[in-house]
Amino acid sequence: MPKKNEELKEITxxxxxxxxxxxxxxxxxxxxxxxxxxxxxxxxxxxEHLRKTALTIATMGQATAEEIAAKTGRTRAAESxxxxxxxxxxxxxxxxxxxxxxxxxxxxxTMCPQCGSRVPMTLDHCITCGAHLVKHRKx
Length: 139
Fold this sequence. Notes:
Layout: H1 2-28, H2 42-45, H3 48-60, E1 62-64, H4 65-72, H5 76-88, E2 92-97, E3 100-105, E4 109-111, E5 118-120
Antiparallel strand pairs: 1-3, 2-3, 4-5
Helix pairs in contact: 3-5, 4-5
């Protein structure tokens, strides 16, 4: 019987060691982001109405539906709907400030043509090499 107790104690100790090591491994793992960190071709995959809204807010960085509507020429209600769709897809973050909902660019990046760095679409120049970034132009 004493031999069994010693074996059980040894097994319990080993399980505790394994548990500690698993805890350490879990702490080392980076938390998986709920939103995409980089969206290389997603803008092309968006329907035209959402793409227009996404490109408009990308140049502004942060805006309300009313501000976007003023730029696109569409109604505030339509832009609010489109901005909420972009937020649900992970492109934008939204935050209520008083009575207004403010939308902010979260993951819209472009690739620098000169050095290949990932650059937020709200910038005019690459933060790595300083190259001028071409913005979307109306046809």
